[in-house]
Structures are given as C-alpha cells and as structure tokens.
Amino acid sequence: MDAMYRENILDHGMNPRNKGVVSPATLDFEMRNPLCGDRLRLTLRVNDEHVITALGWDGEGCAVSQAAASMLGERILGMTVDEVKHLTKEDVFDMLGIPLTANRVKCALLGLKVLHVGLYGLEFWQSEDEE
Amino acid sequence: MSQSAEKTYDVNKIKSDFPILAQTHQTGKPLTYLDSAASSQMPLSVIESLNDYHRRYHANVHRGIHQLSELATEGYELARKKVRDFIHAKSKREIIFTKGTTEGLNLVVQSWGRSNLKSGDVILLSQMEHHANIVPYQMLAQETGFIIRYIPITPTGEIDMDAYRRLLSENSVKLVGATHCSNVLGTINPIAEMTRLAHDAGAVMVVDGAQSTPHMAVDVQVLDVDFFAFSGHKMCAPTGVGVLYGKQALLEKMPPFLGGGSMISEVTFDGFTTGELPAKFEAGTPNIAQAIGLGYAIDYLSEIGIDTIHEHIQGITEYALERLSELPNIAIYGHGELRGGVVSFTLGDIHAHDLSQALDFEGIAVRSGHHCAQPLHRLLGISASTRASFYLYTTKADVDRLVEALYKISTFFANQNKG
Asked: Taking all residues of chain A, what is their mean pLDDT, rounded to a whole number?
C-alpha cells in the first residue's frame, strides 16, 4: 500500500494544488473517465506569448488522478503552450514516481488528456504546430 | 442463520470446489474474492464440462449429420432443458440463449419494442436500473419518440410502490422494466406484485434477473413476467452465455432480432421466412460450450439447492452489514428489507478507486465505480462507491478480512492526510 500511496501522492491527491476555476479563461474543458465516472475540468489562461499564467482543476477523482493533475498543473504554470504540447505520458509517470497497474494508468493520465485534448481545440495550437 | 443450517451448509467444502479460490494473491496473502456480483467463479465440474466439449465433441449445432454435431446438439439442447426447469418455464421454446443479460434486454427492445412502442407512448423504468436496462430504451426512444418515466425509490432504496401505482394510473403505460435484485443497493424488488399491476394497466413486464437468478428460486410462471433476462457468468457458468425467457405467445408475434443462419425457415433471393422458436432468435453459431457450461452450473447449484444457497447468502450479508456498520466513517447504500448479497459503501473521503486498490494490496477483490448505474449514483449524491458481493462460497472469514482491511486503510489514509 505504501508503494503506491506515498506521502506526496496522498498529499497532492487529497489536497490538490490549483483547485478551482479561473475566470476569464482561455480554455475551459472537461472530460470523464468512463471506467469510474470521474470528472475533471480544466480552466486555464494564457497571455499573448501563449504562456500559461493561471489554471484551475475542478471535479472529483481518486488520489492517483487528482495527484497527477495537481502535479501536472504545478509543472505547466509558466510554460508555453508549445512546451506543454511536448509533455508525454512518461513525464506524468515520472512526476508520480509510483508503480501503476494497467487500470490505474487511465486515472494517472486523465489530467494530461484533458490538457492536451482541450488545448488541441484552441486556434493557435494548430498554427504553432505548423511552424 | 441457525446453528443447524450452518452445520449442514459446509461452505469450506463448497469453496474447495472452486480451484481459483485456492490461489494465493500476488501479495502472498490469501485471495479473498468479494466480486461475484460482477462475475462469479466456476466450480471444477463446469470447467471440466467446457474441456470435455472442446476435447471430445466440439462441432456446430443443428447442422451436421455426423457424430460430433449430434453430440454437440444434444448437449446444447439438454442445457436448454436444464434452464427451462431451473426457472420453471412452460416450454423450451421460451428459452433463448444469448451472450448475456445485456443482449437479452436489447433483443426485447429491438424486437418487441420496435414493433410496439410508438411516439408518445410511455414506458416505466425504475431508478435503480443497470445501464443495460436503460440505454437500449433510450436508443430506441431517440428514433421513435416514446417517453421514458422513472419509478422513484424510497430513502431505504426500495421501489416506491405508491408512486409506481400513480405512474401507472396517470399514463398509458406500454412497458415496465425493473431489476429483480439491484446490483448496487441489493434490494430485491416485489416483481410478482409489480407485474400484476403492470398487467392490470395493460403493460408488459421486462425483468433484469442478472442479480437474482444466481441465488434465488425463480419461477417465471409464478412471477408471471413477460420477459426475464439473466447471465451465466454470475451463476457459476462461463462468460458469453445468457438467457432470455419470453412468453411464447409474445415471442411468436415478435419479428426476429438478428438475421442469419439458424433463424430462418426458408430463404430465397427475394426474402425469407422465420424459423420456429427458439431458433428464430438464435441467429448464427451460438456459444455452444458456454451454454453447456451453464447447464452444468445449474446442475451444481441445484445439487446444493438454490434455497440453501439463498439462505447462506442472506446470512453472510446480514453478518457483513453488522460488521461493516462498526466502522465509524462508513456510509452504506441500500437498506431494503429484502436484499441479495451485495453491499455498496463509501468510507470517509477515500475515493472508491483508491479504496479498492488498497483492498487489492490486502488480497481482497471488490468492485469500485458506478457499477453501471450512473443515474442511481447521481441520485445518491455520490460519483462512485465500493461494492463487496457474496456468493455461495463466501465465508464469514472473508467478511472479517474485509472489515480488518478497511480499518487498516482508514487509519492509513487518515494519518497520511494529516501529513
């Protein structure tokens, strides 16, 4: 039990950072984990240089999904959208640093999925891709 | 459970019939399987029956005039007779093999529903239904425009019968769909009475029997239900086989569901005529081994006695409710008077996934999530719950291990949370 539920996982999982909703937001996007019905909403603001200046996570989820989103949020604050684009699932696994079973991988990656799928919908995501 | 009943019911001997339960969990702890409502385990006799079919008489049914096909057909049709007797149907023509409860319910909706439910018609479903008894109706309603109304449940998690009567009298109801036993709340619903009321109102009664058939004596003629669907894998049989019971008079009038081999009488380039029941609803090669396995599962359950099994599960559930209630921060969902072997709960603010993960570290298998009953969970005001479910092989020691583990996990999370 201690291997997965390490202190930092429980810390972030039960007291997630940047909890809430930012307004006005450049991005307001929500997804569900169909396996458990968990809901995760991300609101996020970027400035003219496409740097992420504020973000909020909202919704409910298990300690693993909440911790992953919380850590990911801390990581991307101050990053540009282009930098965020290159974050991979391995980056999330590294941040968590715990062994995950196949079913729990979905929990861990929900935050990154919301982030990437949400950003993909923004106009400048596509244009930056072509540069 | 009385002392004498406990003496005659040798749960450890029964448990030893299930090879999978003798395993050690990867943690080195004994495997405590409390997820039978999702899928029960198979006794050796059922496993051997699959093996026997595959090694000795694997062939298609109702097709070849050769020894293997004859044996396969004989085995498959014998299984149908066993099902008929087990649920007390009038005829084996009323027993349709499906791949599970979900397929059975979809068959009713797509065949009976499509030809009988028109725009503006009303059907009633209970608020405690599994997605399999909601979504097929929603899919057809999107096309044809009939209206779905929901029968409310009481705070104890039982059907609100007064509200049900009111809904029946205020609407012209064509169909009532309800589960025999809730997979979340455990409530056993008064299906015979609900059916009588539905019939008085001129509606047909469709029952999801997935959670009741494994441990309750089902008599479809006494219940007088029009359709009754259940799955093999929750009653000691393999996955991939289920049964739809339907009253012959209704089945005769219904159009086929899937088209293909077996379900026809004659096919020309211009069209087809349907075959006799039950073949009419069994297009394509069925899951033969699995159906045979279901027959052996019925033999196994019948030998012990379905009422005896029911009594054991009642005893275990009562014991589990008593022991789980000791936990200071537990919330148990469903307090019906009559209940099957499932207990759903939340523990403090620990998410159901974390709880089942932590239980797995203790060698204990439970279900977590919304158990395919999202509308019900929303009604209960929770996004997910943890469910322990019990079957004929569940021991009091299994329940004790669950309770001990919950104490341990509760303390662990509370301490960590304090930092």
From this structure: 90
Predicted model pTM: 0.93
- Residue in chain A lying closest to B357 (CA): A1
Query: Could you tell me the domains of chain A?
Result: 7-122 (3.90.1010.10)
Complex ipTM = 0.82
* Fold of the B47-302 domain: Aspartate Aminotransferase; domain 2 (3.40.640)
| B372 a catalytic residue | yes
Residues of A with Cβ-Cβ distance to B354 under 8 angstroms: 5, 13, 62-64
Catalytic residue chosen out of the listed positions B236, B243, B372, B403: B372
Phi-psi region of B224 (alpha: psi -120 to 50; beta: other; left: phi over 0): left
- Which residue of chain B has the CA closest to A100? B357
Instruction: Single out the residue of B179, B305, B176 nearest to residue B231, CA to CA.
Output: B179
Smallest CA-to-CA distance from B53 within B78, B36, B19, B21 is with B78
The per-residue pLDDT for A14 is: 86
A7 vs B: CB within 8 A: yes
Contact B364, B401 (CB under 8 A): yes
Architecture of domain B3-30+305-418: Alpha-Beta Complex (3.90)
In chain A, at which residue ranges do the beta strands (DSSP E only) sit? Answer: 27-33, 38-46, 52-60
Cβ density class B175-191: b for 16+ within 10 Å, e for less: bbbbbbbbbbbbbbbbb
- Which residue ranges in chain A fall short of pLDDT 70? 126-131
User: How many cross-chain Cβ pairs, A to B, lie less than 8 Å apart?
Assistant: 58
